[in-house]
Design goal:
It catalyses: UDP-alpha-D-glucose + 2 NAD(+) + H2O = UDP-alpha-D-glucuronate + 2 NADH + 3 H(+). InterPro entries: 6-PGluconate_DH-like_C_sf, NAD(P)-bd_dom_sf, UDP-Glc/GDP-Man, UDP-Glc/GDP-Man_DH_C, UDP-Glc/GDP-Man_DH_C_sf, UDP-Glc/GDP-Man_DH_dimer, UDP-Glc/GDP-Man_DH_N, UDPglc_DH_bac. Pathway: Nucleotide-sugar biosynthesis; UDP-alpha-D-glucuronate biosynthesis; UDP-alpha-D-glucuronate from UDP-alpha-D-glucose: step 1/1. Belongs to the UDP-glucose/GDP-mannose dehydrogenase family. This is UDP-glucose 6-dehydrogenase. By secondary structure, the protein is of the alpha/beta class. It folds into 2 domains: 197 residues, NAD(P)-binding Rossmann-like Domain (Rossmann fold); 240 residues, Rossmann fold (3-Layer(aba) Sandwich). The protein is 45% helix and 13% strand. It is built from 19 helices and 14 strands. The strands form 3 sheets. A 6-stranded parallel β-sheet has the order 3-2-1-4-5-6, with helices on both faces. A 6-stranded parallel β-sheet has the order 11-10-9-12-13-14. Strands 7-8 form a two-stranded parallel sheet. Helix 10 runs parallel beside helix 13. It binds uridine-5'-diphosphate-glucuronic acid. The site of uridine-5'-diphosphate-glucuronic acid has 21 residues, from helix 10.
Length: 438
């Protein structure tokens, strides 16, 4: 099929390359000339494992190319995927719809008869119906439709999540739209991927419900960490123990500095805002607690750090391992690690941050923090080391060697992934939230 993918961020660039790899002819569309130049040469403008190879292969094969023209997209495509961002609005919990609206307004006049616009961006429920009306209003003569197909890919695993999704969810208003989407995803369906075809509102809600559930799971275990701290329990053992119950499951029960990124935090807030508009704000009031537990993790980490350096950060060197909101990503949007680093700096600490991939993005957001490309350099003369993003290379660190570099061998494991016993036997004092007995 001839497919366009509009918006080439973490979601769109991966989707475009995967669609091209699945046998479609794909045109990627973006307004950013820098991104377009990189992508046209087969280079992703961000870090995502597996994407460079896929992009190069599909661009070289001629099945994927890029443009900045929505007119060209409209004339080319049978199916148009809308993959632009829906960030949190400044001064509000609600999602900012300006990028999605601009794409639909720009594309609608150029749509061909029989074409299908498919929203993938995470949006407030009701958006799809509104946009379908907008297309009909802007181009009343065209026989085009709109569908919604939420995306569940995780950064760091985006390629495998797109090529082998655990489910496909589509919201459609006609059998024709459903048939077109089945054709788009034919390789996944042949491989046995579950396919859920529903109405527009349910499809939109599935996405925010899934992210809200994941956020709730993380905040649940972090709330248990708070209780463990008060009662003298160990949250990691607790999570392991309840996780053995298959009804609960161990995944997304890793306690630590909490969730960040461009999705979970803003999605739960936009969902609360939308529920309020729909008159069912009370139904989602628990998400406010989920958000509060999560944000408290950052504060508690700063408090523990201050306690460990003797009550004040003044004159103290603090090394931060990790800047990305999670490993295998260079995304620093709403990163707990960087928020904690900035708070310590604000309180007078000399902060130096290391990350294997996210330094450039981190520097752009927090230019006054100090950065190091080398772990030992970041830890040089440190009074405290904070492990805040669980990159594999931090797990493989030689604790004995690092001990010789720092001023005080004190470590906070903000992700509960380091081998505490090994660090302690190398001579370190190790602390973690929710693990007072360890
Ligand atoms: C999330 C969802 O997992 C995807 O399914 C969804 O498609 C995506 O949002 C989206 O809406 O686009 P992502 O933001 O890439 O994906 O990251 P996650 O893997 O969900 O992690 C989110 C945050 O939770 C990270 O900061 C991570 O460190 C944290 N986390 C995760 C924990 O603190 N504990 C855990 O047990 C798991």
């Amino acid at each position: 099929m001839r497919i366009t993918v509009i918006g080439t961020g973490y979601l769109g660039a991966v989707h475009a390359a995967c669609m091209a790899d699945s046998g479609h002819e794909v045109l990627g569309v973006d307004v950013d000339p820098r991104k377009l130049a990189a992508l046209s040469e087969g280079r992703p403008p961000f870090f995502e494992p597996g994407l460079p190879e896929l992009l190069r292969r599909t661009v070289d094969a001629g099945s994927l190319r890029f443009t900045d023209s929505l007119q060209e997209a409209g004339e080319f495509g049978e199916v148009h995927f809308v993959c632009v961002g829906t960030p949190q609005q400044p001064g509000s919990y609600a999602a900012d719809m300006k990028y999605v609206d601009a794409v639909v307004d720009g594309l609608a006049p150029h749509l061909r008869d029989g074409s299908l616009v498919v929203g993938k961006s995470t949006v407030p429920v009701g958006t799809a119906a509104r946009l379908a009306g907008r297309i009909a209003e802007l181009n009343p003569a065209v026989d085009a439709e709109l569908a919604w197909n939420p995306e569940f890919l995780r950064e760091g695993f985006a390629v495998q999540d797109t090529l082998r999704p655990d489910r496909l969810v589509v919201g459609v208003t006609s059998e024709r739209a459903d048939a077109m989407l089945r054709e788009v995803y034919a390789p996944m369906l042949t491989a046995g991927c579950p396919y859920i075809s529903t109405d527009l509102a349910t499809a939109e809600l599935v996405k925010v419900a899934a992210n809200s559930f994941l956020a709730t799971k993380i905040s649940f275990v972090n709330a248990m960490a708070e209780v463990c701290d008060a009662a003298g329990g160990d949250v990691v053992t607790l999570a392991d123990a309840i996780g053995h119950d298959t009804r609960i499951g161990r995944r997304f029960l890793s306690a630590g500095v909490g969730f960040g990124g461009g999705c979970l935090p803003k999605d739960i807030r936009a969902f609360m805002a939308r529920a309020g508009e729909l008159g069912v704000g009370e139904a989602l009031s628990f998400l406010k607690a989920v958000d509060e537990v999560n944000m408290r993790r950052r504060q508690r980490t700063v408090d523990l750090a201050r306690e460990l350096v003797g009550g004040s950060f003044l004159g103290k060197n603090v090394a931060i391992l990790g800047a990305a909101f999670k490993p295998d990503s260079d995304d620093v949007r709403d990163s707990p690690a960087l928020n904690i680093a900035a708070a310590i700096q604000l309180q007078g600490g000399q902060v130096r941050v290391h990350d294997p991939e996210a330094i450039d993005n981190a520097r752009a957001q927090f230019p006054t923090l100090d950065y190091a490309l080398d772990i030992e350099k970041a830890c040089e003369r440190a009074d405290l080391v904070l492990h805040l993003t669980e990159w594999t290379q931090y797990r493989e660190l030689d604790a004995g060697r690092l001990l010789k570099v720092v001023r005080e061998p004190v470590l906070i494991d903000g992700r509960n992934t380091l081998d505490m016993a090994a660090w302690r036997s190398a001579g370190w004092t190790v602390r973690a939230l929710g693990r007072s007995q360890h």
